Amino acid sequence: MTATESAATIDLDAVAELAAQLRVDSIRSSTSAGSGHPTSSMSAADLLAVLITRHLRYDWDQPHLPVNDHLIFSKGHASPLLYSVFKAVGVVSENELLNDYRRFGQRLEGHPTPILPWVDVATGSLGQGLPDAVGIGLAGKYLERLPYRLWVLTGDSELAEGSIWEAFDKASYYKLSNLVVMADINRLGQRGETDVGWNLEEYQRRMEAFGARVLTIDGHDLTAIDKAMSTAEDTSGSQPTVILAKTIKGKGFSEVENRNGWHGKPFPEDMAERAIAELGGVRSITVRGPLPEPAEPGPEPEKPETAPAPLAAPKPSATPPVYEVGAKVATRKAYGDALVSLGTRDDRVVVLDGEVSNSTFAEEFTEVYPNRYFEMFIAEQVMVAAATGIAVRGYRAFASTFAAFFTRAYDFIRMGSISGVDLRLCGSHAGVEIGADGPSQMALEDLAMMRAVHGSTVLYPCDGTSTVALVDEMARTPGISYMRTTRGSFPGLYPAGENFPVGGSKVVRAGDDDRVTLVGAGVTLHEALGAAEILADEGIVARVIDCYSVKPIDVETLATAAEATGRRIVVAEDHHPEGGLGSAVADALLAAGLQDLRLTHLAVRGMPGSGTGEELLAWAGIDADHIAAAARELVGG
Amino acid sequence: MTATESAATIDLDAVAELAAQLRVDSIRSSTSAGSGHPTSSMSAADLLAVLITRHLRYDWDQPHLPVNDHLIFSKGHASPLLYSVFKAVGVVSENELLNDYRRFGQRLEGHPTPILPWVDVATGSLGQGLPDAVGIGLAGKYLERLPYRLWVLTGDSELAEGSIWEAFDKASYYKLSNLVVMADINRLGQRGETDVGWNLEEYQRRMEAFGARVLTIDGHDLTAIDKAMSTAEDTSGSQPTVILAKTIKGKGFSEVENRNGWHGKPFPEDMAERAIAELGGVRSITVRGPLPEPAEPGPEPEKPETAPAPLAAPKPSATPPVYEVGAKVATRKAYGDALVSLGTRDDRVVVLDGEVSNSTFAEEFTEVYPNRYFEMFIAEQVMVAAATGIAVRGYRAFASTFAAFFTRAYDFIRMGSISGVDLRLCGSHAGVEIGADGPSQMALEDLAMMRAVHGSTVLYPCDGTSTVALVDEMARTPGISYMRTTRGSFPGLYPAGENFPVGGSKVVRAGDDDRVTLVGAGVTLHEALGAAEILADEGIVARVIDCYSVKPIDVETLATAAEATGRRIVVAEDHHPEGGLGSAVADALLAAGLQDLRLTHLAVRGMPGSGTGEELLAWAGIDADHIAAAARELVGG
User: Fold this and answer.
1) What sign has the CA pseudo-torsion A416, B168, B57, B350?
2) In B, residues 465-504, which contact A (CB 8 Å cutoff)?
3) Which contiguous run of DSSP H or E holds residue A308?
4) Which of A400, A428, A589, B432 has the highest CB neighbour number within 10 Å of its CB?
């Protein structure tokens, strides 16, 4: 049967046929691939059939239309269902669905990614699609001020992820009535029953406690689904909505319905045939749903008060802040200054922070552009996810917290790189330099963590001028970029207006008779300069390089310096020995084919306690004295 | 006034005096240090005063007594309060409290760590103490079966962390009636009001929805606190209890009470004097609370059914499983086999998994030792935290999930290293080798992430025999150890009984005329062997090293090989280029002072999609053909 139906005429019998087709195609695609999650797809087919025919306001021919609704599969493993939807609306062919799914080099990947124009964010790591959608919802309500809705399909297993509850908390705090969660409660996780099973009242209670409006339905009753979606479409309220759907895993095929042991298993061919027969056979229905109404941006909505009234709001200046050479400033402070300046020049800059904006200095932006700031409270996962969603809508999202606490959001950063999104992250309070608070607050693995992210940019400025310049660079750098800032204040080195290209470095001390190269970044750049003074008094001339761009790193300058100084190099970093600056320098010089390196790598090799920054830098062996001693040894030997 | 009070006689007036002392000492210690969080300490002083005098059953002279209660400061920044408690019970002197707090080299660090014998786990990264306590609670109820209680002090800001809700979910699922949370709801976060403020009903609703019994009180009413704690002590129920305490930040000093802007700020000396005067002056009260009753382990409680009944439970064998050389087995399968064998020999082995035990093969242990297995569902943060708490109680906790999903718990792994706890983590589905599921499921940063953890051990076996041996090694390795396992099956290389010491490697192919060294681990070790075959056919003899111990790495064998093969080395890893195996090899050889390295590093430098494992390994340039080509180039040039 072939039929093209339009939204105006499609009745629920036709929707039922479509749902059957979605099930059949989920089975066909995964069986053909020999891989995939058909039963997880089958439980949500009715929800999607009703959604795409009657409620998702989306122009499939114009996926980037600003007024389009958004459909996000937080349960990304139900990709057969999502791709079957794409086929049903006619943007993916039957051939592609059956022959390209999960195949090498093809766009219908095992879990959806934005290689597909109808996909906003990569999913597959559970508990992320919903927090990402919170970001898009924030953009829709407060930034774009367009009436599009977010329709997020979650599974039930993923509701155990804490990030889901961070998302609900922020969705209700920020009154995201544009957010509709379709929760596919099919009871069965990967290896057995979920912790809550079919106890829908428990889920309802939790979601309502977190501020959601919950509509509990039979997830296979098309009338009930349709009614719930109509109710959900009313965005005049202030709550996100959950359509809490009791469903059956593998619905539609008696051999697997509600049976454990079929998660993530494609049906063998003979079994697939039986399933398709039971479902009524292959269909070739093409449908389109409603189109979005044209809309202009609405008035600015009232935003929850997230910061105390500023005592004295500084006049925002578009000119980048200027720091005097020699004047002490903390790079974390310069970050805050830079955001204001950048945000004045670029009204697409949006800032998020995790309850520490007075420490990261994101608060300066808060005070002058509160409408472009989103307080995320102590919830780094949803902070990074929201930044992702906001960035997806074309804004330049900067998110900050203590560098150590970005480890809380590493899976979100990882998925952000898979999404190809532009994220600008700033982690303050790097290293042992922070002093008395002790190791829980010290970032000592962040350079390694961020370098290992595909396509990332890792920046570590040592003074105010370079910080400001690099914040501007981040604003135009694609992918995941990360800046590490320092708690303490250090003297300005560079005059205003100097350029700091990504991938560059600064040679801050050099001469023709340099006998050793000292490489540092952030606090250790200052220590290296101190070491150079000590060595100079002893008649040893040292070249000093500010390696502010840890990734990509300035191979050329490092190689030139190494060659000029007899391959004698000391690298010092306020970071563990693995994967950070020293590793980056070594990788670079080896790749450049340099022979005969004499590299001494100073890093934090013990477990720090409390103390002053100076005491801890000395204890870690990364201060001026230790750098000088290492250099002395290289030169002497 | 000096008074030593015993539990039998201490009345609430005396408790009030103690509370005042705790406030005074919190102020004195932080003012002396010029650093710290007095106002965050002052809000919880009444709670702690009642707790330690009347309810915490703890022998301060025997901190490791098995029947002791446990006190955990999830709000670790209230360390002044915790240390003031230690002084009040007489285990820390006034001199230490005033002169050593936050000082270099001293044990009273800015945030508490187990350097102190009365501290179980390091805290300071918010939202972690409570999930850690869930682990200790699991040990207490199901493993040790002792009646001790967990008393956890949380702040309110940290209740925004998703991990808190993962903890509540597991605490109620596992019926941890031994867990009492004292929630200090003082309304003010670091930079302003929290998202929920003093809306205690909202917190209550959320906590009750997550299965807790909630007792809402005025957190400064000693009678109410005492009554709530008495109620909480009744562990005959099945729910964790929350004492939800409305408190005032800075309580006791009018200049800061309930005022924003004083988070994390010590009082200047003159201000401290005024505060102490208002609080009634310095006290020197020493108290002791009730001692725990002696107890023997109780009967095994009923455990929630977490896994379907096993179809046919294999007879557990204490003999390590044996794999035939040449027979294909997946290292993830061997991990499962190894756990059963190890768990039979060692009844302190406990296993946790995150809803993927049929993929990680932890399920094999589940089926034979369900009483030592804890299903944590899709909640990696609480999984690692619970493993931490269980390990703290002296068990050998092994936790597994997909390697990619350990990125969700990186902050917990980081804090685990600060705690000095022994964690055994196994991440399956490493690299592009997994194939069709695509990048969301592929671990490509995990070697970097885990190498950067202080004191970690990183293992990556290539066959069944080495996997089993290394699981045994993990069981006796202190600190954080991590094993990376592979999805696909590969031929066994090593005969049963061979040793695989941590820090070692295996030279699997070697001769006197080796012209190039090929280094791999896991899947790339097999590819390297394939490359060696290809090269042999061309008359190029290659040495092949199985670098199964990525950290610590076998510098000696690598250096010897490098020297023997003209410094020509190809390293291949199924991982991003930064911070992984290639980085470890480079670091090692540079540190060994090797000159003139000709190192070619093959790694995953692009963003993978779906495909078969073979297709993706070839695409990534890390398969046998590419390794051979790289070797050929080194030898040729």
Assistant:
1) negative
2) none
3) none
4) A400
Structure confidence by residue, pLDDT tens digits, B245-285: 999 999 999 999 999 999 999 999 999 999 999 999 999 99
Q: What angle do CA A362, A365, A368 make, to 5 degrees?
A: 155
- Pairs from B7-11 (Cβ < 8 Å, separation ≥ 24): B7/B53, B7/B54, B7/B288, B7/B289, B7/B290, B10/B53, B10/B54, B10/B287
* Rounded Cα distance, A259 and A278, in Å: 17
Helices B581-591, A581-591: axis angle to 10 degrees equals 80
Q: What is the pLDDT of residues A507-561, one digit of tens each?
A: 999 999 999 999 999 999 999 999 999 999 999 999 999 999 999 999 999 999 9
Structure tokens at A494: 């560079």
Neighbours of B99 (CB within 10 A): 14
Positive or negative, the Cα torsion across A61, A64, A67, A71?
positive
The structure's pTM equals 0.97
**Cβ-based contacts of A420 with chain B (< 8 Å):** 607
The DSSP result for B210-252, as a single string, is TT-EEEEEETT-HHHHHHHHHHHT-TTSSS-EEEEEE--TTTT
- Which alpha helices (DSSP H) does B504-550 contain, by range? 523-537
Which amino acid, B371?
A: N
- The C-alpha of A257 sits at a distance from chain B's nearest C-alpha, in angstroms, of 17
Backbone φ and ψ for A2, nearest 5 degrees, come out as -120, 135
Q: Do B448 and A451 touch (CB under 8 A)?
A: yes
* Beta pairing, strands A549-551 & A457-459: antiparallel
DSSP A478: -
Strand partners, A286: A4
A269 labelled catalytic: no
Cα within 13 Å of Cα(A567), Cβ side: 16
Enter the tokens of residue A358.
């007075």
Q: How many CB atoms lie within 10 A of CB A539?
A: 8
CB A96 within 8 A of CB A66: no
Say what angle helices A464-475 and A331-345 make with each other, to 10 degrees. 40
**Partner-chain contact B164 A161, CB within 8 Å:** no
